[in-house]
Each structure stands twice: as structure tokens, then as C-alpha cells.
Design a protein that fits this description.
The chain is α/β, with parallel strands linked by helices. Helix content is 38%, strand content 24%. Bound molecules: adenosine-5'-triphosphate and magnesium ion.
């Protein structure tokens, strides 16, 4: 059996009396796309913070390529190959799109020139090349979100965590993001996307879906199956509709 790229093992995280994550376990195989679906407060952002080391787990272990990364700092997990985007996008507003990516690329490239060349390539990949000279503050939300992905890609990750990368986007923009995730996958980069509401587009692209509710794993499975599981239907539609929905 091959070792998964990422293993979340029995992870819990408390904030005072609030249990944001509760005995959560799941795996991400190399190069696959896993969606973490759950309503507001389900624990998606906390999960990403625990994986990257921004927060320590209260208990449990996170493993990357077979080795524990619990206790590492975000800069260390980034160096190992874990990239992320933030729910509240935070590119440098006064820098151009190209410079935002070039600054990130400097972490991996030897010269400023090499960083700019690499940044250009990433702007092609993220379909932002037309906006290379536009200041980040003047981009639309969808493009700022793609810029966040571009900045994460600049660190040459094996795994990218996307926090609410679809939130606030219109259907055409969601589609573009889905296509971008597909391009990342064809480069061998695995993705974990935290998503508030499941969308058809997300179901289509995900290899695996984990459903979180109040920090607990409610269900996980193939996209075609997981949203029909009675616990999931119940949590999303309310118990009243569960029977009918499962039958249909
Ligand atoms: N730093 C913190 N201090 C205290 N409580 C926190 C902190 N961060 C998160 N929480 C709590 O942990 C729970 C999970 O929050 P989290 O932000 O991880 O959920 P989420 O799934 O990302 O939600 P959203 O869809 O709103 O982004 C919530 O009850 C939240 O209030
Ligand atoms: Mg969140």
C-alpha cells in the first residue's frame, strides 16, 4: 500500500470549551482532490490551520508523506510542500499581480529574474496573465482569489489547501476555479478545498468528499454517494426531508 500524501489522524482541537475539531481522520492520496464540506463553524479553517501548523492540534497527529508534521510552524510545512490560500484574501494590495507572485516565487528561485519568469508561467496557469500589471487591489474578488492560488503555487507545493476559494463567486467564476484545480491536478498537485456549500461543479471534480459538522466527520465517500447518505441529508436538509430525499 502506498503512503498517502496527507493523513489526518484522530485530530481534535479545542478553543476553551468549544470543540472545533473532534477526532477527525481522513487521508489525501498523492495528486487527488478532496473537498471538506461543512456549514459555518464546522471547523474547516481550523483544520487548515492545524494542517499548516498555524494552530497545534489538542490531540491527534497530522502526517505528510509518512512523517508527523504536528508541531511544525507554517514556514516549515510550507517548505515541506504544503501551500494554502486564506478565506480572507490577502495579497499585497499595492503590488501588481505579477509582483505579488514574483515575491512569493523568490522563496524558491535563485534570482529575481528567475522569480519573475516563474511568476509569468504561474500567471498563465492561473489565467491571470492579462492582469500582470494591475495592482492587486483593483482585481475582482474572483481574480484576487486566483492570485492567492498563484502565490501558493509559487512555493512549488505538493498539496494546496484552498479555504473557501469558491465563496462569493458567480457560476462562471466557480467554473474557472474548478478548471484551475484540474490543471493543478494534472501537474500532480493534490488539493484540499474547504467549501461551505456543496455545488454540482465541486461534486464533479472531487475525488473524495469529507463532510464536517460541528467539528465531527459526519460522512466521507465518493462524490456520487456521500451527499445521499442519510446523516448528510439530515444535516443539510433537516430530519423532516431526510427520508424522502434518500428515497429519491
Ligand atoms: N481562534 C479561535 N478562538 C476561539 N474559537 C474559535 C477560533 N477559531 C475558530 N473558533 C471556533 O471554532 C469553530 C470552528 O470554526 P472554523 O472557523 O474552523 O469553522 P469554518 O468551518 O471555517 O467556518 P466558516 O464557514 O465560517 O469559515 C467555531 O465554533 C468557531 O467559533
Ligand atoms: Mg472558515
Amino acid at each position: 500500500m502506498t503512503t498517502p500524501l496527507l493523513e489526518v489522524r484522530d485530530v481534535s482541537r479545542w478553543f476553551g470549551g468549544v470543540r472545533a475539531l473532534s477526532h477527525l481522520s481522513f487521508e489525501v492520496p498523492h495528486g487527488r482532490m478532496v473537498s471538506i464540506i461543512g456549514p459555518n463553524g464546522a471547523g474547516k479553517t481550523t483544520l487548515f490551520n492545524v494542517i499548516t501548523g498555524a494552530l497545534a492540534p489538542s490531540s491527534g497527529d497530522v502526517r505528510f508523506e509518512g512523517a508527523s508534521i504536528s508541531g511544525l510552524r507554517p514556514d516549515q510545512t510550507a517548505r515541506l510542500g504544503i501551500g494554502r490560500t486564506f478565506q480572507i484574501v490577502r495579497p499585497f494590495p499595492g503590488l501588481t499581480t505579477l509582483d505579488n507572485v514574483a515575491v512569493a516565487a523568490l522563496a524558491k528561485e535563485r534570482t529575481r529574474r528567475a522569480a519573475r519568469v516563474r511568476a509569468q508561467e504561474i500567471l498563465e496557469l492561473t489565467r491571470l496573465a492579462r492582469f500582470a500589471d494591475v495592482e492587486a487591489r483593483n482585481l475582482t474578488l474572483a481574480r484576487r482569489k486566483r492570485l492567492e492560488v498563484a502565490r501558493a503555487v509559487a512555493l512549488r507545493p505538493r498539496l494546496i489547501l484552498l479555504d473557501e476559494v469558491m465563496a462569493g463567486l458567480n457560476p462562471a467564476e466557480v467554473d474557472q476555479t474548478i478548471q484551475l484545480i484540474g490543471r493543478l491536478r494534472s501537474l500532480g498537485v493534490a488539493t484540499v478545498a474547504g467549501i461551505e456549500h456543496v455545488m454540482q461543479a465541486v461534486q464533479k471534480i472531487s475525488d473524495w468528499i469529507v463532510v464536517l459538522n460541528f467539528g465531527e466527520k459526519l460522512a466521507e465517500g465518493l462524490p456520487a454517494e456521500v451527499m445521499h447518505q442519510p446523516e448528510v441529508v439530515k444535516a443539510y436538509l433537516g430530519a423532516r426531508y431526510a427520508d424522502a430525499a434518500v428515497r429519491s
